[in-house]
Amino acid sequence: MYLMPRFDKSPSGLKISDFEDKSLLIVDDDDPFRDRLSRALEKKGFQPKGAKSVEIAQQLLKTFSPKFAVVDLRLEGGNGLDIVKEIKNLKKDSRIIMLTGYGNLPTAVAAIKAGALDYMAKPVDADDVEAALLASPDSKAKPPENPMSADRVKWEHINRVFELCNRNVSETARRLKMHRRTLQRILSKRSPR
Q1: What are 71-128's pLDDT values in tens digits?
Q2: CA–CA separation, 113 vs 178, rounded Å?
Q3: Contact present, 83 and 65 (Cβ < 8 Å)
Q4: First to last CA, the chain
Q5: Which of 10, 69, 128, 181 could bond 25 through an S-S bridge, CB–CB 3.0 to 4.6 Å?
Q6: Could you tell me which of 186, 121, 177 has the C-alpha nearest to residue 147?
Q7: Strand 74-75 vs strand 78-79: parallel, antiparallel, or unpaired?
Q8: What pLDDT, on the 0 to 100 scale, is given for residue 68?
Q9: Range(s) of the chain covered by CATH 3.40.50.2300
Q10: CA distances from 86 to 37, 106, 132, 174 (A)
Q11: How many whole angstroms separate alpha carbon 105 and alpha carbon 108?
């Protein structure tokens, strides 16, 4: 996850300090990503709690009604859309962003119908998530000021799959359908800008 320069205000002009309730639920089964996003958004003023599965998120929602949520679409033990619906049932004015590594139009429509404000394809950074959480529901999202290059997106995806395969080069190469030596060369290089 890369960090862009901090902006004091989101495009809608709202700041986290404009909200009395700063509670945030991050539901993602990618532990390193969830932890980095949680730390970055905590520095921005949110009060995050994390969950790695549908079951853990449902347990948290029994005692916790977040104002903000960032929910991955595909989770251990279920679908993130179920969590979006539960949060909306608990708190109608919650602001939810759906994340996925598998972006397509039907799931974007399903996320918005379930109550999400926006739908973002991974990888995302904390500034993009903050802007989406604080955006006006009526406004169209602005394109990112400094988006990742296609090479960087590819590098992030390869490294994410590598981490999910417990840093096993052979398994990662098989899943990405690439030659093992090609993968090793990519992993040995520094991240592109």
Answers
A1: 988 887 788 888 999 998 888 889 999 887 765 566 677 777 788 888 887 778 888 8
A2: 37
A3: no
A4: 12
A5: 69
A6: 121
A7: antiparallel
A8: 94
A9: 16-134
A10: 22, 20, 20, 37
A11: 5
* Region(s) of the chain under CATH 1.10.10.60: 150-188
The first and second tokens of residue 153, run together, are 């997106």
Tokens of 96: 């939810």
Residues 6+ apart with CB under 8 A from 7: 127, 131
Given the DSSP bridges, would you call strands 23-27 and 68-72 parallel, antiparallel or unpaired? parallel
- The shares of helix, strand and coil residues in the chain, as percent rounded to the nearest 5, are 45, 15, 40
Which three-class secondary structure state does DSSP give residue 70? strand
The domain defined by 150-188 folds into Arc Repressor Mutant, subunit A (1.10.10)
For residue 32, give Cα distances in angstroms to 43, 52, 100, 120. Answer: 17, 11, 15, 18
Using CA atoms, how far apart are residues 91 and 113, in angstroms rounded to an integer? Answer: 16
Chosen CATH of 16-134 out of 3.40.50.10490, 3.40.50.2300, 3.30.110.70, 1.10.10.10: 3.40.50.2300
| Short-list 191, 189, 187, CA closest to 176 | 187
Rounded Cα gap, residues 18 and 144, in angstroms: 23
Whole-prediction pTM value?
0.66
